[in-house]
Amino acid sequence: MAFELEALVGHLYMAGGRLIYTQPPGALAQVAPRTAARGREIDTFFALVLPSGQVVPTSFYEQMAQLSAERYFSTTGSVTSALRDVFNTLNNNLYEHNQSGRRHYEANMICAVLRDNELFIARSGASAALLRHSGETLTLPDELASDEKLFLPPMGIQPIPNVEMKRFKVDSGSRLILVDAAIAELQPERVTQTLVAENIERVLDEFKTLITLQTQLLAIEFVPPDTQVPVITAEGESSRALSASISQARQSYQAETARAAALRQQRGRGVQIQERVRQGAGDAAKGAGNSLTALADVISKLFRRKDAERGRFSGAALTMAVFAFPLAIVLVVVLSWIGGLGETAFESCVNDALQSAETARAIDSSQPNAVRDTWTITLGIVEECEALRPGDPVMTEIRREGQEIVDRLSSITRRQVRLIDSLPGASIKRLILQGKDLYVLDTALNVVYRVQLDTEGLSRVGASEVVRSLREGATVDGLTLGPLIDITVSEQNLLAFGRNGVLISCRLSIINQCAAQQLDVSRMGSPIAIDVYSRNVNFYVLDPGANQIWRFQPSGGLYTEAPRQYFTGTSLPPLVNAVDFAIKQDVGEVFVLYNQGFITRHFGGDPQNFGFAGFPDGQEPSDVGLQRMHMNESILPAIYLVSQGTRTIFETGLSGIYQRTYRINDETLFELLSDVTVDPAQRILYAASGNAIFAMQMEE
């Protein structure tokens, strides 16, 4: 069915009177995903999750918004019953968590659903909705000036949430505002005047002037699908291409500055100061002109006008349109700094680094966030300086000082690593430690290596060897192993699974004693990971392509039957973004990791409560992204998470509570960080990066 109305979306985020140029963390607008439950295919879901109580990481609000959408689109029944289920489920999760005595979480939330020409709105806590439709301004609650009606109890405070819900009619041109309690400060006449502005961009501009202290606001205008919106929009552009363009602009600026300096030197020492000033200004202007020409090319790529029809949502486009000019100013300032304007680029960089370091040292230690942020900026400047002149002792010392302070304030455990082995031509996907044997899956050559460790676990004994039967093309029991998907272990065996469905099992005690069997993979899409539940030897395959985990149950020690779906019914998690999974061996719970930085937990296919908590600011998994997980259930049970983008390994408890952040001194070694495993008895962490295996001691 075609969509009768579509939504243009904009955002406003103010804190402490300062405009923040990003989307509010709890704001979300989402059309129905492909996996939506029957009857949800034409719905559009909006959510705004707002702070309440003590300060918590922004990722909490992002995850709340995402979970609300997932819950809505996976639930059948009427819109109102589904919305109520969203609020009940999220509130129950928060309430049970808070009753456990751990860190307290609560939130205000307002959601809306567009279906055809009907709009359903539900809220809990201090939040409000304003709708401009057919010449009227309607609100939820109906009296914004009444504290009793506006300030409902936030979610997480009581076992059953207080939810207010209402249905409205909308048509082309109707405008919806989801907003926090700051709206109560405004006169109704001014609000109405703002809602009837010429376009949604003007609506946001007007609210910026009306709300002067702080607010989080989601603005939506409903339009026919073929409506063309005359605002500047950003077309897709490769970040690598943009980076190259900016680098070229930098080089042009530096070359022009160097040429001007050479000309000034040729004039000799007798040149008057006034002439030198004029010359320097002229050279700088010329250099700026050349550099800004290059910059104009970059900006034209970022902000070219798009003549084609717009997509369903334009929130990102509106944000770019409203805030593009400040971004351009920032780029000009950066390029001017790099140019040096009368100094060499390195000298100018060093001056900036020294000044930034002095500023950081002068900040009172009672303001740790300010100290950390300022030193982080300083380290960024130092990195630029070291790129211009590597090995400068002044920059080395500032970097050491700043890194120690940032690590301490950010709870980062930084360690030296030891190289265990480097496998030529390898691309390591998986590490499995069994005793003093480290099994390594190389997906470049499609082989499994065995690396034998010494008694201390910090060095290799002899040369690493390929397990003869665990490589692509190996034939066992008349079956040939295809390209390897993954490896795992049961209590006694190492298992390797090929894309052709051949499963080979080798005894850990005699690694070249292996058996093979053919599994039914006719329904699989793109499997990426495997695991075994040792209690009943069920074999599981994570298959994002089919949005499913397949479960093979043994019969006489063989998996002869077709696999069963682990997830049944309509409540399927969004496995298209899954990257790894693990099975908790004591009870058989399944933990699924997603690249957006969250985990879902399931028992018998049914969802269970799980959420990350306690991560330091700037390290929230939803901000940094995750690619691999390892679950340890023996000594000091924990989950270890790989974030390749930040070259980081996180450690949490099995309930998701943050414990530690591990990074290494030479972070370039972790540029291709791909997997982690741990020896809990000796407190050694093993990490794979590219073709190398490293070991680090978790305790000093």
Provide a quick synopsis of the model.
The chain is α+β, with helices and mostly antiparallel strands and 700 residues long. The protein contains 12 helices and 38 strands. The strands form 9 sheets. Strands 2-1-11-10-7-8 form a 6-stranded antiparallel beta sheet. Strands 3-4-5-6-9 form a 5-stranded antiparallel beta sheet, with helices on one face.
How many domains, in number, for the residues?
Answer: 4
How many angstroms separate the termini?
62 Å
Structural class: alpha+beta
Q: Can you list the strand order of the major beta sheet?
A: 2-1-11-10-7-8
Q: What does this entry look like structurally?
A:
This protein has 700 residues and is of the alpha+beta class. It has four domains: 6-223, Phosphatase 2c, domain 1; 239-339, no CATH class; 345-409, no CATH class; 415-697, Neuraminidase (6 Propeller). Helix content is 29%, strand content 31%. The chain is built from twelve helices and 38 strands. The strands form nine sheets. It has a six-stranded antiparallel β-sheet with strand order 2-1-11-10-7-8. It has a five-stranded antiparallel β-sheet with strand order 3-4-5-6-9, covered by helices on one side. Helix 1 crosses helix 2, helix 7 runs antiparallel to helix 8 (315-339) and helix 10 (368-388) runs antiparallel to helix 11 (393-409). It is globular, with a radius of gyration of 29 Å. Mean pLDDT is 83; it is low at 231-247 and 263-342.
